[in-house]
Design a protein that fits this description.
mainly alpha; 4 helices; 66% helix
Length: 87
């Protein structure tokens, strides 16, 4: 899907193990919050006004996580150092 306002979470090169862990936890927190909002929105979707639905669709399009974010959560620190991964 083409994203107009494509957002990436750049990982600065050569992070320490603790910094990398905190970075991955921030990504995980973002995805957990996004998922909770999505689930809550699913319960109230039929009760929302059409304008509010449009705003939520736009926000979901902008802030939805992509596969690279999911990959960043599960890449180990050793692989990060070995491959020099920078997204």
């Amino acid at each position: 899907m083409l994203k107009i306002l494509h957002r990436t979470w750049p990982a600065p090169p050569q992070m320490s193990r603790v910094q990398y862990f905190k970075y991955r936890m921030r990504l995980l927190t973002f995805m957990a919050i996004w998922l909770l909002i999505l689930i809550g929105l699913a319960f109230f979707w039929n009760h929302l006004h059409i304008l509010i639905k449009g705003i939520f669709i736009m926000l979901g399009y902008i802030f939805s996580p992509d596969f690279s974010m999911i990959e960043q959560i599960f890449v180990s620190y050793e692989k990060y150092l070995k491959d020099g991964l920078v997204w």
